[in-house]
């Protein structure tokens, strides 16, 4: 038992312990209601997987091999994250032995990583498309538009007239022109055949089988296929390779969800990546092992991965469509072209997210240690669809950087508290299947 | 002047350590630490139960931030301190015959187990939860049988 003096000490210590406990409770509640996210890039180890800042490139689009930032080669980098944040702090850690002071600005934009790709010329019609302009009929074969020389040619080859989509004469300039298709021509490349219950497409004089009817219907309409009997297969050899689903199709097998692109299949790592990339759960097609098996499985598709080739973005503010191919985005200028790239749904973006940015000036925090900071509110760009923030720096003089840190956080105010509580409520309801 | 002030500083420095040493060996001080450890353990247990409920309602909220590890580390530190100081002060543990917390533990366990099986039908959930608790109760008593008075 305590004497009087030690009892007083105990009561005081107890009070301190309880005060610390209450402080921890409030701190945890603050961290739950106002989460933050940190990202780092070390110029000493630019290829390390620990670098959570991605695509650290200079103005010319080349990756950095060290922290020597010369004039006109300012870093442009990205961070990918889901969640609602209202402010960001960018900390530049200079190599203090080699650098003078740092001055400049940082501009921040928000969208999807692939939507930041440079824009190239308009997208052409998809191979195998059947087109019609007034009384003229065409087919897109091997990337070229080939005209049917007569109606007889169409009838003789077995194409169905209802499969041809109406296009304008300016649409016909999108693809280069090829030779006319005559009555005596053999079947053009990319012709599609329906034999028994299976669909085939002609490529390089070899028939490629669609892995399933579902896969075929994700790319072409049923009327586009020419009806043939089994004897037709004697005229061509059938490749062992299969044709799959249209690019950007979401497939599921067991508990995994994949996104297709060409011959590749990307397993999506978690629901946060799935939802923040703008995909819809209702678009998922259950696939069997054969349908999954024709693809080459790629490494995990994380929140840091850009949308794969074949993805179509739809700008909600300007109503435009962009197709992703080879790290460029190509505008789909015609509704007819869009029809030839069927998708369950398009990834929503905002055209103005490319022009709207927030900026901040770089100021010293601990100049002695070479630390400079640029802090900016991001409410102006926060509501744009996308999970990628792009930071474009404009630094006045050459410097040597050691690392860059980026932290996203929320301002402690009543609006953000209400938002956080609402999002927690939604998460709880979702967990119990109440919404 | 300088050398005399240096000596005074050295003397007060050693005096501080001597008094610290005598304090740490003082049974009253050790008992204070013991009692504070008890308080910390109680708060840690309450935090652990709260963390279990939070994880049940919002999966990943606690486990995703190493919450269970941190709470367990505090609990182990408090238990180690209680055991070490209790040994020094000859404080033994008395096995309480009446398990006052048992109904509370059963209610918490029932809610948590039931919550983890929400995908089952209500009657299946209730049946499995009750059966699980019964099995745990029987197992517990087969490893530590009730002593006859």
Describe this entry's structure for a reader.
The complex is a heterodimer of chains A (435) and B (149). Chain A has 435 residues and is of the alpha+beta class. Chain A folds into 3 domains: 34-106 and 354-431, Jelly Rolls (Sandwich); 130-243, no CATH class; 254-353, no CATH class. Chain A has helices at 4-33, 151-157, 213-217, 271-276, 289-293, 335-339, 379-382, 414-431; strands at residues 37-42, 54-57, 68-69, 76-80, 87-94, 104-111, 119-120, 130-133, 136-141, 144-147, 165-166, 192-195, 198-203, 206-210, 226-228, 237-243, 250-253, 256-261, 264-267, 285-286, 296-297, 312-315, 321-325, 328-332, 347-349, 358-361, 363-366, 371-377, 388-395, 399-409. The model of chain A has no long low-confidence stretch (mean pLDDT 91). Chain B has helices spanning 2-24, 27-57, 67-88, 102-116, 122-143. In chain B, helix 2 packs antiparallel against helix 3 (67-88) and helix 2 (27-57) packs parallel to helix 4 (102-116). The mean pLDDT of chain B is 82. Chains A and B meet through helix 1 and helix 8 of A and helix 2 of B.
Q: Structural class, from helix and strand content of chain A?
A: alpha+beta
Oligomer: heterodimer
Strand content of chain B: under 5%
Helix content of chain A: 10-25%
Q: How many domain modules of chain B?
A: 2
Low-confidence region ranges of chain B: none
**SS-derived structural category of chain B:** mainly alpha
Number of domains of chain A: 3
CATH architecture of the largest domain in chain A: Sandwich
CATH class of the largest domain in chain A: Mainly Beta
The separation of the N and C termini of chain A measures 57 Å
Strand segment count of chain B: 0
Write the element-wise H/E pattern of chain B from the N-terminal end onward: HHHHH
User: Which residues of chain A form runs of ≥5 with pLDDT under 50?
Assistant: none
């Amino acid at each position: 038992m305590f004497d009087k003096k030690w009892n007083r000490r105990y009561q005081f210590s107890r009070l301190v312990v309880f005060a610390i406990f209450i402080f921890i409770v409030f701190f945890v509640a603050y961290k739950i209601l106002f989460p933050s996210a940190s990202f780092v890039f070390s110029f000493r180890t630019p290829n390390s997987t620990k670098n959570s800042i991605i695509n650290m490139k200079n103005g010319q689009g080349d990756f950095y091999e060290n922290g020597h930032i010369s004039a006109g080669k300012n870093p442009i980098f990205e961070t990918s994250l889901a969640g609602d944040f209202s402010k960001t702090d960018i900390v530049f850690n200079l190599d203090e032995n080699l650098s003078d002071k740092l001055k400049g600005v940082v501009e921040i934009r928000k969208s999807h990583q692939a939507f930041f790709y440079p824009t190239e010329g308009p997208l052409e019609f998809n191979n195998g498309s059947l087109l019609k302009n007034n009384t003229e009929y065409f087919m897109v074969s091997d990337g070229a538009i080939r005209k049917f020389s007569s109606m007889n040619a169409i009838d003789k080859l077995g194409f169905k007239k209802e499969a041809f989509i109406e296009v304008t004469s300016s649409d016909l300039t999108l693809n280069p022109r090829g030779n006319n298709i005559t009555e005596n021509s053999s079947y053009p490349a990319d012709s599609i055949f329906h034999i028994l219950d299976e669909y085939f497409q002609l490529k390089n004089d070899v028939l490629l089988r669609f892995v399933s009817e579902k896969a075929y219907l994700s790319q072409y309409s049923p009327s586009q296929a020419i009806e043939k009997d089994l004897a037709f297969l004697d005229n061509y050899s059938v490749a062992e390779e299969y044709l799959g689903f249209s690019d950007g199709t979401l497939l599921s097998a067991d508990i995994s969800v994949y996104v297709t692109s060409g011959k590749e299949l990307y397993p999506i790592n978690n629901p946060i990546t799935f939802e923040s990339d703008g995909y819809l759960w209702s678009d998922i097609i259950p696939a069997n092992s054969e349908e999954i098996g024709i693809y080459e499985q790629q490494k995990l598709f994380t929140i840091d991965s850009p949308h794969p080739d074949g993805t179509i973005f739809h700008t909600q503010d300007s109503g435009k469509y962009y197709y992703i191919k080879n790290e460029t985005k190509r505008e789909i200028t015609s509704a007819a072209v869009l029809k030839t790239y069927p998708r369950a749904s398009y990834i929503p973006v905002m055209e103005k997210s490319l022009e709207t940015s927030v900026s901040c000036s770089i100021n010293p925090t601990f100049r002695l240690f070479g630390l400079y900071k640029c802090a900016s509110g991001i409410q102006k760009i926060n509501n744009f669809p996308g999970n990628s923030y792009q930071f474009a720096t404009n630094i006045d003089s050459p410097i040597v950087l050691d690392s860059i840190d980026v932290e996203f956080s929320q301002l402690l105010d009543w609006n953000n508290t209400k938002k956080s509580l609402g999002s927690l409520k939604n998460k709880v309801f979702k967990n119990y299947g109440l919404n | 002047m300088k050398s005399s002030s240096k000596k005074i500083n050295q003397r007060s420095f050693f005096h501080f350590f001597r008094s610290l040493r005598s304090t740490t060996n003082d049974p009253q001080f050790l008992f204070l630490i013991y009692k504070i450890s008890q308080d910390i353990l109680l708060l840690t247990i309450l935090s652990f139960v709260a963390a279990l409920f939070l994880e049940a309602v919002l999966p990943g909220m606690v486990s995703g931030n190493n919450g269970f590890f941190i709470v367990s580390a505090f609990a182990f530190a408090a238990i180690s301190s209680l055991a070490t100081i209790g040994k020094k002060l000859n404080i033994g543990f008395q096995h309480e015959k009446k398990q006052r917390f048992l109904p509370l533990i059963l209610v918490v366990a029932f809610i948590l187990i039931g919550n983890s099986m929400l995908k089952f039908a209500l009657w299946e959930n209730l049946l499995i939860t009750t059966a699980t608790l019964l099995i745990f109760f029987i197992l517990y008593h087969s490893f530590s049988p009730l002593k006859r008075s």
